[in-house]
Structures are given as structure tokens and as C-alpha cells.
Amino acid sequence: MERKAVILLSGGLDSTTTLAIARNQEFSPYALTFRYGLRHEFEIEAARRIAQLHKVSDHIIVDIDLGSFGGSALTSEMEVPKNRPVNESSGDIPVTYVPARNTIFLSFALAWAEVLGATDIFIGVNALDYSGYPDCRPEYIEAFRNMANLATRAGIEGKAITIHTPLIDLTKAQIIQKGKELGVDYSLTHSCYDPLETGNPCGRCDACQLRLKGFREAGLTDPLVYVDKIQ
């Protein structure tokens, strides 16, 4: 019997690794990507390539204009922070946080899962090497899972919804090592918050620095071509 699972696929390193993990666990992946108001389409293009390569059962790209609200450097003209020390955390939530993004994404995934008759959702959140977003923490995921089982027909009928977070307690290096073991081609992924018009990553935003740090600590070379990067 087919084990369907909805996978949130951004086209980035973490979500691509999560897709590979779901596939390795013999789930039939249904990939869900959002065009939510980013200032570029490179993540969408990456998600398309990755979904095709992994032969997902279906891939839906949903349009949601979170840019209408603004409030984030990713969806407005606000400047993307550069050159921030990745090993130091001020405790402040960075301006690249998109308000309620994971809650919105998981809600759509939950709706599709109900239609598919699936009880499994995969999301590549991480609580170690991440940028300080509140919706990447284990307690948030547990709260959403509880809500999902209260708010759905499946939950009421005793078909418990499971939110899989296989990367939640891994370092970026461990994520990359896991992906390499599963044959993930990281040259197809996109992580940069502020890429050039060519799509090349900037090398200095939080996402680029965390990614580069992960590859260094994994003893591997990032296959992406960076315009500039902190050594």
C-alpha cells in the first residue's frame, strides 16, 4: 500500500535533504512549494528541478503573496543582513524571519494531506544551525501537531497526523553528510537570501554563511559558485 507523505520543498538544502529522507523511508512524496513573495524565483526553479529528479508523485506550487504584508527582508525592500557572525546569537529574531511562514505552509500541507488521505507531513526545520526563527523550534512543531489532530477529520477519526522533522536536532554539517549518504545533489539547491541576477549566491547572508560553515565542518566543498564569501 502506498505510504503518502506531503513534503514541504523550498528548493533549499534542508528541504531537499528532507525529501531524500522521506523517500529513503519508503514514503511516496507529494511535494509542496510556495511562491510567497520572495524577490526572486531561484528557489522555485530549484524546487522544480529537485522534484523532477526525485520523481515525486506530484508537485504543486502554490501562490501566496506574503509580500503584501511585508515585515521581512525576504519579502520587502528591507535590506538583507550581511556578514553577521554565524557563531554568535544575540537572541533577537532576524529581519529575514517571515511572519507566520511555517504556520501558513504547514496549514496548506495539512489540507493537502487530508485530501490525499495522508497522515504524514515532512518539514526541514532545524533548531541547531539556523537563523533564530521561532517557528523552527520543537515546541512549535509539537503545538502544530496537537492543533492538526484537533482540527481535522483525520484527527477526529483517530488517524493521527504526524509532523516529521528529521533534521530538527542535526547540525548543518550532519544534514549535509546525511544528504550525501542518500545521494543528494546539492548543486541543484538554492539557499541564498540575496542572490545575484545570475542566481549565484552572495556568500555573506545568514543562509550562505550557515551553508558554507556546514560544508566546511562536513569536510566537503559546496558545489555552488559564490560571488563572494567569508573565509
Short description:
This protein is an alpha/beta fold and 231 residues long. It has helices at residues 13-24, 42-53, 101-116, 138-151, 153-156, 172-181, 206-218, and strands spanning 4-8, 28-35, 58-63, 120-122, 162-164.
- Note the overall shape: globular
Number of strands: 5
Q: What proportion of the residues is helical, as a percent range?
A: 25-40%
Give, in order, the helices and strands: EHEHEHEHHEHH
Instruction: Find the structural class using helix and strand composition.
Output: alpha/beta
Biggest sheet layout: 5 strands, parallel
CATH topology value: Rossmann fold
Describe the structure.
With 231 residues, this protein is an alpha/beta fold. It has one domain: 3-Layer(aba) Sandwich (Rossmann fold). It contains seven helices and five strands, in the order E-H-E-H-E-H-E-H-H-E-H-H. It has a five-stranded parallel β-sheet, sandwiched between helices. Helix 2 links the parallel strand 2 and strand 3. The radius of gyration is 17 Å and the shape is globular. The relative contact order is 0.17.
Could you give the topology of this structure?
Layout: E1 4-8, H1 13-24, E2 28-35, H2 42-53, E3 58-63, H3 101-116, E4 120-122, H4 138-151, H5 153-156, E5 162-164, H6 172-181, H7 206-218
Parallel strand pairs: 1-2, 1-4, 2-3, 4-5
Helix pairs in contact: 1-6, 6-7
